[in-house]
């Protein structure tokens, strides 16, 4: 679907900015906001390019560079830190052969950090796209990543 078609699903009102940016990013093959998408959004909503860029760079859920099909967000809140999330991060980096902020060579996974996922009672936790995983351990990490690799093969 074209950028214009996505944007026009929403009324041209400023309060729709976040919803438009999410829709654009979710429809992008690189899971990111392109310069063209942000410029079209600004034009449609009657905003400056700088204001749209400012919103896109303020929120960590948006990216201005291409990412993998599956975005892994690891919670690094104090509770997850206490529950040894650093071990989980190192394991994911090892399995995917990437560091935090990078995308795997097969373009399937991007690894990011998140300040809080609101799952303190079942720490450590992470999200893959919009699905939350709790009580993470070495075995569950391997299973989760393999599940998404298999999902990619099927689609």
As a percent range, the share of strand residues is: 5-15%
Shape descriptor: globular
Largest sheet, strands/sense/barrel: 4 strands, mixed
Unreliable segments of 5+ consecutive residues: none
Could you give the order of the helices and strands?
HHHHEHHEEEH
Nearest-angstrom radius of gyration? 17 Å
Question: What is the typical, i.e. mean, pLDDT?
Answer: 95
Largest beta sheet: strand ordering: 2-1-3-4
How many angstroms separate the termini? 19 Å
Structural class, by secondary structure, is alpha+beta
Counting DSSP E segments of at least 2 residues, the number of strands comes to 4
Supply the number of helical segments: 7
Share in helix: 40-55%
Characterise the protein shown here:
The protein is α+β, with helices and mostly antiparallel strands and 155 residues long. It is 46% helix and 12% strand. It contains 7 helices and 4 strands, in the order H-H-H-H-E-H-H-E-E-E-H. A hairpin with a 2-residue loop joins strand 3 (126-128) and strand 4. The longest helix is centred in the last third of the chain and has 17 residues, at 138-154. The radius of gyration is 17 Å and the shape is globular.
């Amino acid at each position: 679907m074209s950028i214009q078609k996505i944007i026009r699903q929403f009324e041209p009102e400023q309060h729709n900015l976040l919803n438009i940016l999410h829709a654009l990013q979710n429809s992008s093959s690189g899971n990111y906001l392109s310069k063209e998408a942000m410029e079209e959004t600004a034009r449609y909503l009657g905003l400056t390019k700088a204001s749209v860029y400012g919103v896109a760079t303020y929120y960590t859920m948006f990216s201005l560079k291409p990412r993998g099909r599956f975005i892994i967000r690891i919670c690094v809140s104090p509770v997850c830190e206490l529950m040894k999330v650093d071990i989980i991060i190192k394991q994911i980096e090892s399995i995917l052969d990437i560091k935090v902020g990078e995308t795997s060579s097969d373009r399937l996974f991007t690894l990011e950090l998140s300040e809080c996922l609101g799952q303190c009672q079942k720490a450590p936790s992470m999200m893959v796209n919009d699905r939350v995983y709790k009580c993470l351990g070495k075995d569950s990490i391997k299973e989760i990543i393999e599940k998404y690799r298999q999902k990619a093969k099927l689609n």
